[in-house]
Design a protein that fits this description.
alpha/beta; Aminopeptidase i, Domain 2; 2 domains; 30% helix; 20 strands; nine-stranded mixed sheet; 13 helices; Aminopeptidase
Length: 444
């Protein structure tokens, strides 16, 4: 197996094992621990050793991992990579049970900018966090992944909606509750059915559950990720946006342990990007800043560190779609398998500047990988990333980049089988080969 093929298989395994943000963080923790990184607790005093790797989680769904450089961060800055762990999905409501026309359903809330139509007629399962009281009466929590399909959202037959292929709309309240089965309780209230099921599943997994108290659960498609295309040119999977970037950044960070690094390298993967990042564990919260301040030691050192640092915000980009090419600017339509994309927006929806764009292109040159540019059409709105939020909050230089993909925010997305690898190579060059001089020259 080639290095690139091994990388892609690892990405596929990561996608399969990460049906929720909490699962993605757990998978990253396992890889960090295997690589010799040490878990830190925010409530404790840290004793850090240069050259060693560490990680911290917050809320179980956001994670920061870093390898401490041999030199002080105030002298070298921090080489940061950012991504997000969440993806648009359907989340289960707290009192979710519905009984309609003899069918047992669960009410769901749309999380993020979901492309809704692809959710119909898929084999769905449930995953996420469950909080429960154990037999000793203490609160505890566990991750749940049911794995097997337990629900479906059936489409309405075209015979009953002859306009379905012209102007079909989806009412999130009425049309999205998944069906789990036929109810045979003869009119009895279905309340607490889900909690009883969750308790049973957790007990079968070895947890001592007396009562399920609450949960954070999302439905997901059970179809596994796959390499597709005549020559396996594509990766097709749920949650490519943005678990592809989480995995790519993680691999770049772990690769840095192959040689002693003067500068500190860091990966931050936040939850809640798809809903604006405004939370204690989102990019607009204090998580990253608090870690950086602890690494710097004092305010003077912190400001010197920020001035010497660079953040590469990694979030997938819109590849040009051959059936909808008119949706792109003629000169800025990124192609699949043509390299990572530098994302630019004059209205600061992306944080890229000409300086940081030039720096990232130099990392691609170091890694001998191609790169592209994306600018949204001037008559269309532009999405955003954690990049502008981190740049505003920290005052750090930022470049927004990402692997090109199709079907963003669908239940199943498609990216190129070369592009994640290309991005990982550029990130490794950023960490291991860049001497930091360019950014200092730009200040003088």
């Amino acid at each position: 197996m080639t290095e690139q093929a091994e990388f892609n298989q690892g990405l596929i395994d990561f996608l399969q094992d990460s049906p929720s943000p909490a699962h993605a963080v757990l998978m990253m923790e396992k890889q960090l621990a295997k690589a010799g990184f040490t878990a830190l607790n925010e409530s404790e005093e840290w004793q850090l050793t240069p050259g060693q790797g560490y990680w911290i989680t917050r809320g179980a769904c956001s994670i920061i991992a870093f390898r401490l450089g041999e030199q002080a961060v105030a002298e070298t800055g921090v080489r940061m990579m950012g991504a997000h762990t969440d993806s648009p999905c359907l989340k289960v409501k707290p009192k979710a049970e519905l009984l309609r026309q003899g069918c047992l359903q669960l009410g769901v809330e749309v999380y993020g900018g979901v492309l809704l139509h692809p959710w119909f007629d898929r084999d769905l399962s449930l995953a996420g966090q469950v909080h429960f009281r154990n037999k000793a009466g203490k609160l505890s929590s566990a991750l749940l992944d049911i794995k097997q399909p337990i629900a479906i959202i059936p489409s309405l037959a075209i015979h009953l909606n002859r306009e379905a292929n012209k102007n079909a709309t989806v009412n999130a309240q009425l049309h999205l509750p998944p069906i789990l089965g036929v109810d045979e309780s003869e009119g009895a209230s279905p309340n607490l059915v889900l909690r009883h099921w969750l308790a049973t599943w957790l007990r079968d997994a070895g947890h001592e559950v007396a009562e399920v108290i609450d949960y954070d659960l999302c439905f997901y498609d059970t179809q596994p990720p796959a390499l597709i295309g005549l020559e396996q040119e594509f990766i097709s999977s749920a949650r490519l946006d943005n678990l592809l970037s989480c995995y790519t950044g993680l691999k770049a960070l772990l690769q840095s342990d192959k040689q002693t690094q003067a500068a500190t390298s860091l990966l931050v993967c936040n939850d809640h990007e798809e809903v604006g990042s405004a939370s204690a564990i989102g990019a607009e919260g204090p998580f990253l800043e608090s870690v950086l301040r602890r690494l710097s030691g004092n305010e003077q050192q912190y400001q010197r560190m920020i001035a010497r640092s660079l953040l590469i915000s990694c979030d997938n980009a819109h590849a040009i779609h051959p059936n909808y090419a008119d949706k792109h600017d003629d000169n800025h339509g990124p192609k699949i398998n043509a390299g990572p994309v530098i994302k630019v927006n004059a209205n600061q929806r992306y944080a890229t500047s000409s300086e940081t764009s030039a720096l990232f292109s130099s990392f691609c040159d170091m890694a001998k990988v191609p790169y592209q540019h994306f600018v949204v059409r001037s008559d269309m709105g532009c999405g955003s990333t954690i990049g502008p939020i981190a740049g505003t909050k920290l005052g750090v230089r930022v470049v927004d980049v990402g692997a090109p993909q199709w079907s963003m925010h669908s239940i199943r997305e498609t990216a190129g089988s070369k592009d994640a690898w290309y991005l990982s190579q550029a990130l490794q060059a950023f960490i291991s080969e860049w001497d930091g001089a360019d950014i200092l020259l730009a200040e003088s």
